[in-house]
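Field log, afternoon session.

UNIT: design team B
ACTIVITY: writing a sequence onto a fixed backbone
BACKBONE:
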């Protein structure tokens, strides 16, 4: 238990008095409540709250270290935003707090990007992208220079993230991908000792809709084989992962998406290191607040993961699954919903479901851009889901424990606890309902007598549509120097926990009876 209190003391402050106070309470066996606002204040409120029994089994598997990752859209290269901000210390610092992670640069315009090693200035070309038969002002080739490519790598190195970069799949000679421009990029990268994890094409099963171009799954699989051979021809790139095919909407009732995926896997074979796809819950143009709190919307993700997993296991049973682009609502997000507190209910649940069902990486769209941005579009100040993501990184361990997938309003998951806190578990989740819910922990998560629980309860300052998040009742905001504040937990006696209405929470439980979680 001592490690749990050292962890809490670090989170509270570096003040010796705080640590001493905790030690006194520990020795006295009278662990108190410091900031506890999650319990209903009156006994009648407790009696009215439903009790949910959360029964946790034993260890299942580990997620990857970069499980929670982030994205920037290729459109930010074309607009010039990326070059105007990529050297920002604020952006570097806010990104670094999400490391370890992938930084994916991809999106629709990835299939219009041309690399020009010796170019001195990016440009948007007058002609349509190569081979594209439908053209609009937004669907035209544009360039990225060698110096800009180097800037991206410098940013990733400073922020401690790994680059995941999406190459143009619409540079084609008939039915086949033309690797000429990719070779120019790899030549430059090899010369300057730059590396990445690679993708080829963005949502290729939607090329007909977006570009009036058809590339079949078998064709794309052959293209990936060409790219894999090209990567293997460079000593510096032989170890680089290639992942794909980044299909969108592979739903049970959408046979073309799953068929495309199956055809691709038939042909791509061992060219790839992970099977990738994209997921959004709803259309950002028509989404409502009810969509963001409706358990049936939440439940759709598990069905999609299982559909992708079933298809992948038939073709490539040993390859991991990655969600390489995902958020609440497609089409840039839902304004006033995807960028406020309520979106965190979907985001945390997505992390819980994905880890529980064996997804190795979940790439959030987007660190910046659209209504689903983690950062304010004008000030780069953190929005609620950034705080939630940082807290997840800080307190949720990689080890996933077995627990039933939730289907109702109280949605809970369990992992090993944070690094450095042995014998601990992280129980986390959301309450979609309009009243508090009490949680009784059973199984591996049940605390031992005289144990303690650290509670991080997040709510919207002015309700679910607030852009300011409260941690145990205290508003979260950056310090004047741009650094994050101390994320201070409440210290609770072990027992029944409480999830307020429309809240998300993390509970660090000491006394885990799971050998894989003993080392923290």
């Amino acid at each position: 238990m001592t490690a749990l209190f050292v962890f809490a003391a670090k989170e509270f402050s570096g003040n010796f008095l705080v640590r001493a106070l905790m030690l006194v309470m520990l020795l006295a066996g009278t662990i108190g409540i410091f900031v506890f606002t999650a319990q209903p204040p009156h006994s009648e409120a407790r009696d009215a709250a439903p009790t949910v029994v959360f029964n946790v089994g034993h260890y299942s598997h580990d997620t990857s270290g970069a499980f929670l990752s982030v994205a920037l859209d290729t459109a930010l290269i074309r607009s010039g935003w990326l070059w105007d901000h990529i050297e920002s210390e604020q952006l570097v610092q806010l990104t670094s707090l999400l490391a370890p992670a992938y930084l994916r640069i991809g999106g629709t315009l990835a299939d219009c990007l041309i690399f020009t090693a010796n170019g001195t200035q990016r440009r948007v070309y007058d002609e349509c992208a190569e081979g594209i038969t439908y053209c609009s002002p937004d669907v035209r080739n544009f360039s990225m220079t060698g110096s800009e490519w180097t800037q991206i790598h410098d940013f990733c190195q400073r922020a401690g993230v790994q680059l995941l970069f999406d190459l143009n799949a619409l540079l084609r000679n008939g039915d086949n991908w033309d690797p000429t421009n990719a070779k120019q990029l790899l030549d430059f990268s090899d010369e300057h000792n730059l590396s990445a994890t690679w993708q080829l094409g963005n949502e290729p099963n939607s090329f007909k809709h977006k570009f009036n171009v058809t590339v079949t799954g078998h064709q794309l699989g052959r293209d990936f084989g060409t790219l894999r051979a090209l990567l293997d021809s460079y000593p510096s790139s032989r170890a680089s992962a290639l992942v794909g095919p980044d299909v969108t909407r592979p739903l049970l009732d959408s046979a073309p998406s799953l068929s495309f995926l199956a055809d691709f896997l038939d042909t791509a074979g061992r060219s790839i290191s992970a099977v990738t796809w994209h997921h959004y819950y709803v259309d950002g143009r028509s989404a409502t607040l009810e969509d963001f709190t409706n358990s049936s919307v939440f439940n759709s993700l598990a069905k999609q993961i299982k559909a992708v997993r079933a298809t992948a296991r038939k073709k490539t049973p040993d390859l991991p699954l990655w969600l390489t682009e995902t958020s609440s609502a497609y089409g840039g997000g839902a304004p006033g919903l995807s960028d406020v507190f309520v979106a965190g209910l979907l985001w945390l649940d997505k992390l819980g479901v994905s880890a529980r069902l064996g997804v190795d990486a979940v790439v959030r769209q987007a660190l910046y851009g659209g209504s689903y941005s983690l950062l304010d579009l004008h000030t780069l100040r953190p929005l609620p889901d950034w705080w939630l993501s940082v807290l997840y990184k800080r307190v949720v361990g990689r080890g996933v424990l077995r627990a039933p997938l939730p289907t109702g309003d109280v949605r809970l998951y369990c992992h090993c606890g944070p690094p450095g806190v042995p014998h601990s578990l992280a129980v986390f989740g959301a309450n979609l309902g309009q009243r508090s819910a009490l949680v009784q922990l059973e199984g591996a998560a049940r605390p031992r007598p005289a144990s303690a629980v650290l509670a991080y309860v997040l709510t919207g300052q002015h309700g679910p549509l607030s852009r300011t998040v409260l941690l145990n009742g205290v508003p979260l905001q950056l310090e004047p120097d741009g650094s994050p504040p101390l994320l201070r937990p409440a210290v609770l006696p072990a027992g029944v926990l409480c999830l307020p209405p429309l809240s998300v929470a993390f509970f660090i439980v000491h006394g885990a009876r799971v050998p894989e979680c003993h080392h923290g």
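LOG NOTE: The radius of gyration is 24 Å.
NEXT ACTIVITY: expression trials, pending approval
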